[in-house]
């Protein structure tokens, strides 16, 4: 993990000594995200915000462009093929730190982890902005009306006090129905799968 952080930081001409991440992420993807965050913030807050926009745009591109998604997930490409292709899929004018990050992931055989790294970076930038990221996991995508109801329900809670809520919808068919709501260090399980598991557990006890 340490080598991954040093690699992205050195490519961004930054060190971790002058700046600090707002939250600690202990996963490998979190380490890549943290090193990317530090590299941008070391330059300036403006560079960090610019990078955040570029990452959000490229993450959306992966989800919507089948060719880009296939490239990111393709394990058969050689290192040189991936490096060459990266320059063409990353939009011109994007933060060089984004290309640095993708290049490091590619060199380490972890390019397919880019979406998760972007997700972890989103958590860092939300904390930096004083936002409370609320992850709502559902079996199918939720419309804005449903997400607004979640936002309104959490606005009056103590944990949301003084923060701007950022509600993010993630899709996981295994929840069967209902919702999983994660915010701060709290989690609310309103999924049908949770109810089924509790029912099965009760039958087992009997």
From TrEMBL:
One of its GO terms (cellular component) is membrane. Its main location: membrane. InterPro entries: ATP_synth_OSCP/delta_N_sf (IPR026015), ATPase_OSCP/dsu (IPR000711). It is found in: Membrane. Keywords: ATP synthesis, Hydrogen ion transport, Ion transport, Membrane, Transport. One of its GO terms (molecular function) is proton-transporting ATP synthase activity, rotational mechanism. Belongs to the ATPase delta chain family. This is ATP synthase subunit 5, mitochondrial. It comes from Kwoniella bestiolae CBS 10118. The lineage of its organism: Eukaryota, Fungi, Dikarya, Basidiomycota, Agaricomycotina.
């Amino acid at each position: 993990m340490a080598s991954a952080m040093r690699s992205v930081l050195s490519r961004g001409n930054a060190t971790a000594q002058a700046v600090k991440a707002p939250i600690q992420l202990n996963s490998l993807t979190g380490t890549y995200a943290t090193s990317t965050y530090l590299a941008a913030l070391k330059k300036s807050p403006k560079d960090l915000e610019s990078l955040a926009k570029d990452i959000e745009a490229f993450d959306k591109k992966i989800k919507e462009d089948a060719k880009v998604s296939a490239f990111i997930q393709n394990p058969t490409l050689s290192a040189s093929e991936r490096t060459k292709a990266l320059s063409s899929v990353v939009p011109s004018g994007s933060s060089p730190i984004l290309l640095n990050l993708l290049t490091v992931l590619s060199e380490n055989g972890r390019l397919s982890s880019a979406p998760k790294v972007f997700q972890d970076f989103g958590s860092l930038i939300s904390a930096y902005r004083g936002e409370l990221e609320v992850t709502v996991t559902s079996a199918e995508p939720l419309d804005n009306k449903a997400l607004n109801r979640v936002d309104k329900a959490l606005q009056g809670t103590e944990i949301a006090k003084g923060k701007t809520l950022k509600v993010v919808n993630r899709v996981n068919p295994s929840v069967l129905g209902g919702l999983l709501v994660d915010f701060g260090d709290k989690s609310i399980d309103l999924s049908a799968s949770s109810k089924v598991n509790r029912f099965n557990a009760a039958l087992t006890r009997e």
